[in-house]
C-alpha cells in the first residue's frame, strides 16, 4: 500500500515515515540482520535471514502494490531507524483484521519513535476499513508490552513456549489486539 510520506517533530529532530523503495533492499537486509542480532524478542536468528537483494526488492514492490499490506520505514534526520508494517488478510471473513509488526534498531528504542509509528499505521489501517490490529509479542518483552497497552492494545491470549532459545530456555508469546 502506498502512502504519502509524513513528517513528525521528535524533540527538534525530523522523523519521516514513508514507504520503503526497491533501491533500499540492500540497506533493509542489513537492518534485518542487525536487529535480529540485537534482541532475543524476534522469531529468527540473524543467520536465518537468507533473502537475496532480489527477494527483498520483490517484497518491497509487493507491499507497495498491495491494497492490504504496508511497509513503512522510519528515517530520523535522514537515517534509517526501523520499520513498521501491516499484513492484511485476503479472505473476506478476515479482511477486517490486520497484523502489525515493528522493529527499531536498539539504539532508537525508548525515544518515542515506536509510539509514533504504531499510531500512524493504526490510523492508516482505520482509514482503510480495518477494524482490529493484532500483534504477537514475547511475554518477556516488558517495554514493548507496556507501550502496546498504553496505545490501547489488550492481551487476548498466550501461547506457552512459543520460542526456544539456543540455551534451551523458552519464552511465551502474548497475542494482543487493538479495536479501532
TrEMBL record:
Pfam families: Acetyltransf_1. Gene3D superfamilies: 3.40.630.30. Keywords: Transferase. One of its GO terms (molecular function) is acyltransferase activity, transferring groups other than amino-acyl groups. Residues 15-180 form the N-acetyltransferase domain. It comes from the Bacteria. This is Acetyltransferase, GNAT family. The lineage of its organism: Bacteria, Bacillati, Bacillota, Clostridia, Peptostreptococcales.
Amino acid at each position: 500500500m502506498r502512502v504519502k510520506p509524513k513528517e513528525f517533530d521528535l524533540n527538534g529532530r525530523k522523523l519521516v515515515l514513508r514507504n520503503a523503495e526497491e533501491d533500499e533492499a540492500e540497506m533493509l537486509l542489513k537492518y534485518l540482520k542487525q536487529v535480529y542480532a540485537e534482541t532475543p524478542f524476534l522469531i529468527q536468528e540473524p543467520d536465518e535471514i537468507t533473502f537475496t537483494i532480489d527477494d527483498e526488492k520483490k517484497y518491497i514492490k509487493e507491499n507497495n502494490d498491495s491494497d492490504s499490506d504496508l511497509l513503512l520505514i522510519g528515517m530520523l534526520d535522514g537515517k534509517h531507524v526501523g520499520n513498521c508494517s501491516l499484513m492484511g488478510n485476503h479472505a473476506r471473513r478476515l479482511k477486517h483484521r490486520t497484523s502489525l509488526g515493528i522493529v527499531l534498531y536498539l539504539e532508537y528504542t525508548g525515544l518515542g519513535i515506536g509510539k509514533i509509528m504504531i499510531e500512524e499505521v493504526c490510523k492508516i489501517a482505520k482509514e482503510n476499513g480495518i477494524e482490529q490490529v493484532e500483534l504477537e509479542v514475547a511475554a518477556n518483552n516488558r517495554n514493548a508490552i507496556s507501550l502496546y497497552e498504553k496505545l490501547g492494545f489488550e492481551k487476548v491470549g498466550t501461547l506457552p513456549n512459543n520460542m526456544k532459545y539456543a540455551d534451551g530456555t523458552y519464552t511465551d508469546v502474548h497475542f494482543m489486539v487493538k479495536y479501532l
